Amino acid sequence: MQRSRIFLTASLGLGLATAVATLPATASASPAKAESQVSTAASIAAYEGSGEDRAATKAFFEAVMKSAKAKQAKTGAAAVTVTYSARRAPTFASQIARSTQIWNSSVQNVQLREGSGSYDFEYREGNDPRGSYASTNGHGRGYIFLDYRQNQQYDSTRVTSHETGHVLGLPDHYSGPCSELMSGGGPGTSCRNPNPNAQESARVNQLWANGLTAFDKGSFLKAAR
């Protein structure tokens, strides 16, 4: 689903559509009731998202990669570094830092770093009935929006790490298990895993090792299996 906004917005995140919250999320989500942590029709239906928009996910990834690789070419650096700004999401500073640490330790061909000047994308926070999502204008700029209410109901570090996965080229796969980061909110609110699994890490490494050619040839992790 695409929405008409200043930015081409793809609701790519966990997709919980709830009443707008009025207070920022705390450092971690509230304890959730016991659940199976396995995605079922009921757990997926418990929230209403836009559904994964593969074309828009791809556009966001391409915009970030284009910006990062252009800077790499100018500096002659060996590794691809994706820079971000967290200034517009101060409530989630610890979750963003943890998500960055998780991804940097999980992949080798691309690294995340907070930028002091220019950046490839930014994090934002606020209230949105769609929940958290990734958005791009298709011209080398984009942002991750972190919704307060969703981050109170779901594990906040998992939400942030999941949304960051879109920046690195991964789409949603809500039917996956809790061990799969891009299953997002599918396994329910008790799922607290913020780490990509081995397949997800391998896909990101493959994408950033070979660039857009690999992406176009189908290395992109499909949402449906």
UniProtKB/TrEMBL annotation:
One of its GO terms (biological process) is proteolysis. GO terms for molecular function: metalloendopeptidase activity; zinc ion binding. Its cofactor is Zn(2+); Ca(2+). The active site is at 163. Disulfide bonds join 178-191. It catalyses: Hydrolyzes proteins with a preference for Tyr or Phe in the P1' position. Has no action on amino-acid p-nitroanilides. InterPro entries: MetalloPept_cat_dom_sf, Peptidase_M7. Binds 1 zinc ion per subunit. One of its GO terms (cellular component) is extracellular region. Zn(2+) binds at residues 162, 166, 172. It is an enzyme of class 3 (hydrolase). This is Extracellular small neutral protease. It comes from Streptomyces buecherae.
